[in-house]
Amino acid sequence: MAAIPYFQLQVNAPGGEAILILARAEHGQLGWYGSGHDIVYTRDGLVVKTVGLPQNLDDSAFPAENPFRKGLQHLRTPLEYTRRMDWSPGYRYGVIVNARLEPKGLEDVDILGTVRSLRRVDEALSAPGLGIHMTNRYWIDPADGFIWKSRQYVAPGVPLELIQLQPYRETVP
């Protein structure tokens, strides 16, 4: 992988796995493109939109403060908040999802033969009126909060595992 001069993200989905290439970095949002028509958009390590999947995340927004923007490395105690999510097909738009981030311990994660000691953070998501209950997991660098690996539900029943193979790390001026 290191011989390929592109930022790369491995995505494992229920239907298979793919290596996506960073094709767009604009205003903090990263567009990762696959060889087909699949696209995964991330912001601060969080999937905010997908294209080309059987079920897609059309949008994910925070009505209040976004804990991912602040950096999950600052999380010391559980944090509760809400997210607004849009899914298609099915026209499920504006779904208010209750969320709870909970920091866990350090875990060793092997990425392409390099073992990193990363802090796991779990995010419980629920929309009880719709019978939706999901748990996302993030493995973050405890020093700077960079999300090296995650397992995120982009829609109910549709988890994606994301692994940074050749990460894009935006420099802050």
Question: Any chance you could write out the topology, listing elements then pairs?
Answer:
Layout: E1 8-13, E2 16-26, E3 29-33, E4 39-43, E5 46-51, E6 56-61, H1 67-70, E7 79-88, E8 92-111, E9 114-127, E10 132-140, E11 147-155, E12 158-166
What does this molecule look like?
The chain is an all-beta fold. The chain has one domain: YmcC-like (YmcC-like fold, Beta Barrel). It has one helix spanning 67-70, and strands spanning 8-13, 16-26, 29-33, 39-43, 46-51, 56-61, 79-88, 92-111, 114-127, 132-140, 147-155, 158-166. A 12-stranded antiparallel beta sheet has the order 5-4-3-2-1-12-11-10-9-8-7-6, with no helix packed on it. The longest helix is centred in the middle third of the chain and has 4 residues, at 67-70. The two termini are 29 Å apart.
Which CATH architecture would you pick?
Answer: Beta Barrel
Basic shape: globular
Distance between the termini: 29 Å
Instruction: Report strand %.
Output: over 45%
Remind me, CATH topology?
A: YmcC-like fold
How many domain modules? 1
Total strands: the figure is: 12
Share in helix: under 10%
Query: Can you summarize the main beta sheet?
Result: 12 strands, antiparallel
Q: Write the H/E string, N to C.
A: EEEEEEHEEEEEE
SS-based structural class?
mainly beta
Q: What radius of gyration results from the CA coordinates?
A: 16 Å
Taking pLDDT < 50 over at least 5 consecutive residues as the criterion, the unreliable ranges are none
Give me the side-by-side strand order of the main sheet: 5-4-3-2-1-12-11-10-9-8-7-6
Indicate the mean pLDDT.
94
